[in-house]
Design brief:
Largest sheet: 5 strands, mixed
Number of helices: 14
Radius of gyration: 28 Å
Structural class: alpha+beta
Shape: elongated
Strand content: 15-25%
Number of domains: 3
Number of strands: 11
CATH topology of the largest domain: Alpha-Beta Plaits
């Protein structure tokens, strides 16, 4: 006998539609014709699917759902699933395949919208995702550069994600070795009040979300990176409440990831709110950047590896000499000597605000030009 309860649960989880199984007398509806069941029918506001009949008990088993919540394409698919059940097909695999196809369709819509750089009509048969966004979804963008020629198994990655998030997330395939991970607010952020309206929730998160998202994303990257050989890059955006904003957000995260590779060599997790200056520098035409750096050629000490490492740490420590020396594991006087040497050869003293800003911008332009 087919496992209709399992089918019921899977359909409810995927389509977010209330289904129920009912038993009614065979003579109540003309379901059986020439020993062949019709697939489905509507009565009032309900849609019914024939499951099976027992002539001995004079009963038939039906699957019902609100008619207005089931699209025509979904209705046809359910009919096919039930038909396959009668042929001893695995209902779990059928429903899983439907979900995979649905996520692939979502990914195609995102990718096409990003490539054409304009909003495209949202596929009607993906309305279940539209409803999920109304409650708030956090988008991640994951890329892989690795040793696996065949790439990362979608099934294996999905299994790892469900475990880390401790709940169901949407793993949306984009280009090869590129994915969008979509997670409900409650799976990522703490202290989200379900009774709080959207406006109040957004205002609350404006001030607390960045630190919380950063910690969660760092942990997620560590888990994924430890699972496979290769390099993963991960970026995250703040919550979305409208699926229409998903393609431009993924496009934005893709840009942030590319900037992260150029400006933050050695790091693999990127947060958009930390890239304001980098985006500004990258928007400067390449020819303008090259001409500026040519004019700074007499300050080549700035572009030596030791100098770059020293200055980056110095800026990270808010130009604090003592803290920078500790971070670099060198004596304070050694750091002062390096800074004095930079001043002597370039005329720029990074211990002053004006020169620190100029050197910071110069290093940014050098990095992006070098990696272009």
């Amino acid at each position: 006998m087919a496992n209709y309860e399992e089918l019921l649960q899977k359909l409810q989880d995927i389509l977010n539609v209330p289904f129920q199984i009912i038993d009614i007398p065979i003579n109540k509806h003309t379901i059986i014709k020439d020993n062949e069941p019709s697939h489905s029918f509507e009565e009032g506001d309900s849609l019914y699917f024939y499951l099976e009949a027992s002539k001995e008990e004079e009963k038939q088993k039906l699957l019902s759902a609100p008619a207005q919540h089931v699209e025509a394409s979904e209705r046809a698919l359910i009919e096919w699933i039930i038909s396959s059940l009668h042929q001893n097909a695995d209902p779990t695999e059928i429903v899983k395949n439907k979900e995979v196809n649905s996520l692939e369709q979502l990914g195609s819509w995102i990718q096409e919208s990003v490539d054409k750089d304009k909003p495209l009509p949202y596929p009607e048969d993906l309305s279940v995702y539209e409803k999920q966004f109304a409650k708030g979804m956090i988008p991640f963008y994951l890329t892989y550069e690795g040793a696996h020629e065949s790439g990362i198994s979608l099934k294996a990655l999905n299994k790892l994600l469900q475990s880390y998030f401790d709940g169901k997330v949407l793993l949306v395939p984009l280009e090869e070795d590129r994915w969008s991970i979509l997670a409900e607010l409650g799976l990522v952020l703490d202290n989200t009040d379900e009774d709080m309206d959207q406006m109040a929730l957004q205002q609350k998160m404006q001030f607390s979300i960045e630190e919380e998202l950063a910690a969660f994303t760092d942990g997620l990257h560590e888990v994924i990176a430890n699972e496979w050989v290769g390099v993963f890059h991960l970026s995250v955006a703040k919550p979305l409440f409208n699926i229409a904003y998903l393609p431009p957000t993924i496009s934005f995260l893709r840009e942030i990831t590319e900037l992260g590779k150029k400006f933050k060599v050695g790091e693999h997790v990127y947060f958009p709110w930390q890239f304001h200056l980098e985006r500004l520098i990258y928007s400067i035409p390449e020819e303008v950047r090259a001409n500026y750096l040519k004019g700074m050629s007499n300050t080549s000490i700035l572009f030596e590896d030791e100098t770059i490492s020293t200055l980056e740490t110095f800026f990270q420590m808010d130009c604090n000499v003592s803290e920078t020396a500790k971070r670099l594991y060198i004596h304070r006087n050694t750091l002062i000597y390096r800074l004095d040497k930079i001043k002597q050869e370039t005329g720029l003293d990074v211990r002053t605000f004006k020169d620190a800003v100029l050197v910071k911008l110069t290093l940014f332009m050098y990095k992006v030009t070098k990696t272009s």
